Amino acid sequence: MIKTREDETRQDVSDLAAEICPVCDDTRVRVVEFGWFVLELDRHEELRDELYADEPALEFRCLSCGANWA
Fold it and tell me: What letter does residue 61 receive in the DSSP assignment?
């Protein structure tokens, strides 16, 4: 989901966010890094598929309210 929110200080600038918090509607959202992120590059597909088949590819966290979602 991509939404825009007008910047409060300048009317001609908009804030573009790939994710917006579903709880508080804030755009200050970051991706939570999983442990598999540090795997060797040549084996990352093999190891990620075996160990993390049931986990979502990305998990997000809101910096304002602390909500997590995938």
Answer: E
The parent domain of residue 28 ranges over: 3-69
Closest CA to 14 of 25, 5, 27: 5
> Cα torsion for 32, 2, 17, 49, to the nearest 10°?
20
Q: What is the pLDDT of residues 1-47, one digit of tens each?
A: 454 454 444 455 455 557 899 999 998 988 887 655 555 566 656 65
Residues forming beta bridges with residue 15, ordered by sequence position: 5
Cβ atoms 17, 2 nearer than 8 A: yes
- The number of distinct structural domains making up the chain is 1
Distance (Å, whole) CA 18 – CA 23: 16
pTM tops 0.85 = no
